[in-house]
Design brief:
Number of domains: 1
Helix content: 40-55%
Strand order of the largest sheet: 1-2-3
Distance between the termini: 105 Å
Structural class: alpha+beta
Order of helices and strands: HHHEEE
Largest sheet: 3 strands, antiparallel
Number of helices: 3
Amino acid sequence: MRWRTGQFRRLARENRGVTALEFAIVCPLLIMFMFGILAMGHALFSVASVQWAVERSVRALMIDGSLTQADLEKRIQDSLSNLSNMDFKIHYAEDLTYAIPIVRVYTDIAYHVVIPLIPEFDINYRVETHVPRPFEG
């Protein structure tokens, strides 16, 4: 019995391999955290890209009065052809109650985020832009 207690005491004082054990405990958390940061960064980049594409297309609508809703949607979708994992819907409404016609463009974005070891979730965002139409005449 004495031999075993002496061996356990020596083992308790031994600290070789502690660093490897700590790394094995912390490494999965760090990897998950890193993937989470990458996923959220890509989500924010995608939302900003949609906002940029909508505002750029609406500027063209301000200049060219002959653009239709279909033309505007095509411009936005062409600008966003490289973003594949995002669902967005474009709503277009003309307000003719004022002396200058105003176009209201709403884009609803649903971005699906996947992070390892965390339940999947969606980021929902809305881009709103209101612009005057040029006078036709």
